[in-house]
Specification:
By secondary structure, the protein is an alpha/beta fold. It contains nine helices and eight strands. Helix content is 45%, strand content 17%. The two termini are 26 Å apart.
Length: 237
Amino acid sequence: MNQNAALSCNRVAIYDLDRTVLRTPTFTLFLLWATWRAAPWRLLLLPLLAGLAIGHGLNFYGRDRFKPFAIRLMLGATIPRNLMNDLAKRFAFWRVSGDVPQGARASIARDRAQGYRLVMATAAPEFYAGAIADALDFHDLVATRHHRDADANWLPAIDGVNCYGVEKARRVSAWLDTHMPGTTRHVRAYSDHASDAPLFAIADEAWLVGRSRKLADLAARSGWRMIDFEVEDPPVD
């Protein structure tokens, strides 16, 4: 991430990744894309991946179990660091070049111009979310962490808890306390989903991304503002 931002800056813009900065969810897409390039024979295991997804959808187990299972199934028990770095950079280039709505680009550019420190906060794994954040010149990343072995190769197992919902808000709060302790700060947060209500609760500005009537009703009930990233230049105060 870009480390040149002044640490004294008291403005922070927090962006979710899936269906916010990018239109398309990334986790399964990355697994399939990376598997095709790193170990195409593992695509024969797609029925098992579908079974895992169905079990997760039926609430037999949560994201903290599903995601490591899926990564191990499709990419193996250990993913070499150099291979993962290469895959992540190529995946980030592909998605950022074609899947960032113009409104998201405009919002990110405006926040940067207004002196906001840009932080991507996502449940996506850090190994590719970091590459996407770098490609968009974000200053920092809060994402689901994964273990590494003694040689710094990536492992499927989650280090801690999946960065989702309450955990994402806790991680962002910890980031704020570390990087901006004792300052009067202004936090602007963007997400497409009600699961980020805990994150919105610690923000001074909460922006729900979307355009549907259902989301508009949710924003009205919750006291959040609406923004449509499919509009090229969405208004932000």
